[in-house]
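Appendix C. Worked example: EEF1A lysine methyltransferase 4
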Amino acid sequence: MAFDDQETPSDSGRKETAAEFLPKTTSAYGDPRYWDKRFSAEEHYEWLKEYSHFQHLIRPYISTNYSILELGCGNSRLSERLHGEGVIDVTCIDLSAIAVERMKQRLKEKGLLGIQVVEADMLDLPFESESFDIVVEKGTMDVLYVDSGDPWNPRPETVSKVMKVLKGVHKVLKPDGVFISISFGQPHFRRELFEAPCFTWSVEWKTFGEEFHYFFYTLKKGRRSSEGKQFSIDKCDVPAMSLFHDELEDEDFIFRTDI
Ligand SMILES: C[S@@+](CC[C@H](N)C(=O)[O-])C[C@H]1O[C@@H](n2cnc3c(N)ncnc32)[C@H](O)[C@@H]1O
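Step 2, the predicted output written as structure tokens:
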């Protein structure tokens, strides 16, 4: 499956299609100009699935007194949904200045002034260490995988960008914080970076969705057994992809996507 828009039920139950916003090539998803143009015309679109589809998975991780950071909010309603669960301290970031402006406007119109919206790059998070209980992203890191080449052996630029995001998230999470990544990407294409040896988080995942399964990853900081080793964020070797390739040898994975 390509990294592509799909028909998604809106909150009202009406079907919306984003066909008019489809780019000519998937590389556009990595281009901030594409997002600016799209967000200046598009009111609302939920990538992957909207909140009700994974509410049962995310709820056990949130608490009303938590501080939550959402990466790459676009024009999604995820932050509103989290706020609706009683979480007061919600911040969302996006690289697109237009997405940020429009999100601020929408939240103002709805009287949801408590949600902070910040123009920022997830590769360079402008927050202090240990600021958030939860960091969540939905379909945002998947953007880094467009044009990543062979999914078993992604380009060094892709690996470097993904590792930058992960290191930043690891840093801004509180010592027992959780990173929730909601993604198209299957575990055998995500695990090797999520489980890089410098991170103290333990990695688990569940799936949701009917026809196509999406992945709900939880990376729980401070829960990984160190096995006598010291975690060092400065020295972070990425394990060989082939380890995971071997695991799959006898399995029939029909969804061998590259994102
Ligand atoms: C596939 S959309 C997902 C939007 C939203 N999370 C959702 O679930 O509907 C990717 C979003 O990531 C944003 N984005 C792309 N690169 C980013 C970066 N480096 N830092 C922050 N946001 C980024 C885009 O502007 C866009 O809003």
